[in-house]
Amino acid sequence: MIEQIARIPMFQGLPQKQLRDLAGIVVPRNFKRAETIFSEGDEAAGFFVVASGRVKIFKLSGEGKEQILHIFGPGEPFGEVPVFAGTRYPAYAETLEETRALFFPRTSFIALIQREPSLALNMLAVLSLRLRQFTHLIENLSLKEVPGRLAAYLLYLSENNSQTDDLELDVAKGQLASLLGTIPETLSRILARLISQELIQVNGPKIKILDRQGLEDLAEGGKL
């Protein structure tokens, strides 16, 4: 367990003593596919780190429409902000596939941070990155048209994979449409237009960027 915790980005570089302390409070949890981990409004009893599998964080409108906020994979934490703020979970968390997660109870973790303040510095770095990601999400959903949102998302995937032009979507197109704030039919039409303008190639879940500059222009507000 200590080696697994040491590989989590937010805990990398911590001394063995702190890793042992974390291993002493962590609770491994296993979830089935499409299982709810927590619901909006639930008491934030602790936060999670994905060990394997994927988890989507989403909100529901009054009409029941789902808006995906983020999809987390191995090594990524979720549910941590309300734990520190002392509030309730502000969204839903549900597994996209069979998932194993590490649960860190709030009371035990806060006590550990009080004894080991350097833990808080690592958490702050992760929370700062998360804030920047959500700022981009809000900007994309409110200021950009759907083609620009899709272009920005493809470039984001590329950046997260060492600027490669060969990408593979790790979510279904319906889920991607929700993440981009649109519907599957609109997403399919826009993908077809990107293909016809030779900006990308699509083969199932595999996407190849053909014109990076064209995608960047589209992401910055250009038109198809």
Draw up the topology in text.
Elements: H1 2-6, H2 16-25, E1 27-31, E2 36-38, E3 46-52, E4 55-60, E5 66-72, E6 77-78, H3 81-85, E7 92-95, E8 99-105, H4 106-115, H5 118-143, H6 146-159, E9 166-168, H7 173-179, H8 184-196, E10 200-203, E11 206-209, H9 212-219
Antiparallel strand pairs: 1-8, 2-7, 3-6, 3-8, 4-5, 4-7, 9-11, 10-11
Helix pairs in contact: 6-9, 7-8
Question: Could you give a quick summary of the protein structure above?
Answer:
This protein is of the alpha+beta class and 224 residues long. The protein has 9 helices and 11 strands. Helix 6 (146-159) crosses helix 9 and helix 7 crosses helix 8.
What's the domain count?
2
Low-pLDDT segments: none
Tell me the CATH architecture of the largest domain.
Answer: Sandwich
Total number of β-strand segments?
11
The best one-word shape is elongated
Our estimate of the beta-strand percent is: 15-25%
The H/E string reads HHEEEEEEHEEHHHEHHEEH
Q: For the record, what CATH class of the largest domain applies?
A: Mainly Beta
Largest sheet: 4 strands, antiparallel
User: What is the alpha-carbon Rg in Å?
Assistant: 19 Å
Q: Average pLDDT, to the nearest integer?
A: 87
Distance N to C terminus: 50 Å
CATH-assigned homologous superfamily of the largest domain: Jelly Rolls
Separate helix tally: 9
Helix content: 40-55%
CATH fold type of the largest domain? Jelly Rolls
Main sheet strand line-up: 1-8-3-6
Coarse structural class: alpha+beta
